[in-house]
Amino acid sequence: MGQLIRYTLRALPRSAAVGVGLVAGAWLFGFCVELIVDFVLDRVETYEVPRPDVSTFFLLLGAVVGPVTAGVLLVRAVAAESRAARPREVRPGRVGGPGPIRPAPEPPATVDDVPVTGLVADALHDAAGQLAPGADLTTGRVLVALVRLDYRLDWQRIWLVTGAPEQTGLASADDSPPASAVRPDRTTWREVRLSPELTEAFEVAGAVRRRYGYPTVDTAIFTLGLLAFRNAGATRALLSLGQVDHGRLLGHVQDDLLRTRLRGLRAIIPAAPN
C-alpha cells in the first residue's frame, strides 16, 4: 500500500496538470467560439437572435472530460511504475523453444587451401596411411614419402652431406609430443591431423609459392618447408650426424632439388643462406 501511495503521488502532478489543461482549453475554445458567434450576429440587423452561452457549455464539457482524462492517465502511470519496479523472472530455455545462446564452435583449422602438386598430395596420403590411429603426420614421414615417390630429383646429393635417411632415423623422427600432451586440436590436411611443425611447413611452402610466383607447391618447395625450422623432426634428423649445418642444408635443397637460389628467402626462412 505504501508503494502504491508513493507511485500515485509521483504521477499525480502530471495527471492533474493534464486535467486542468483540458478544462482551461475547453473554456478558452468555447470563449473563442462565442466571440465569433457574437461577431456574426452583430451583422444581422433584421431581427433579434438570442445569443447562445457557448463558453459556459464548453467549460462544463471540459469540467467533465478533464478529470476523467486525468484519472485515466493517473491509473496508467501508477500501473507503469508498478511494472517497472517488479523484479523480472528469468526462465531457463525450454526444449523446443528459445534457450540460452551458446557460441558456435570454431571450425578446425586446415591447410587445404595450399595448392600442392599431385605427387606431393600422393606422398602425404602415403605417409598418412602408415600412421597409427590418433597419431599426427610428421615432417620426417612426409619427407621419406617424397623421396620414395619423386625419384626424378637427385636426392643422393643431399644424402652426401647429411647421411642416408636410414642412418639419421628420418622416418621415425618426432616433431612434437602427442596431441594430448599439448592441446587436443590439430590443424588438418584433408582430414589428416598434422603436427605443428608440418603445419608450419605448409605455411612456409605456401609463402614461397606466392612470393616467387610458382603455380603450385612441388616437391622441392615443400622440402624447403619441411626443413625450414630447426625444431622440425626432419631437420633434426638430417643434422644429427653433424656433417652440415642448417643454413648449408637449405642451400643444398635449393641447389640440388630446386635448381635455383631464391633471393630474399630469409624473409620467409630466417635460417636460409644469403
Automatic annotation (TrEMBL):
Write out the transmembrane intervals. 12-37, 57-79
Q: Specify the protein name.
A: Uncharacterized protein
Residue numbers spanned by region Disordered: 89-109
Instruction: Name the keywords, alphabetized.
Output: Membrane, Transmembrane, Transmembrane helix
Q: Which domain of life is it from?
A: Bacteria
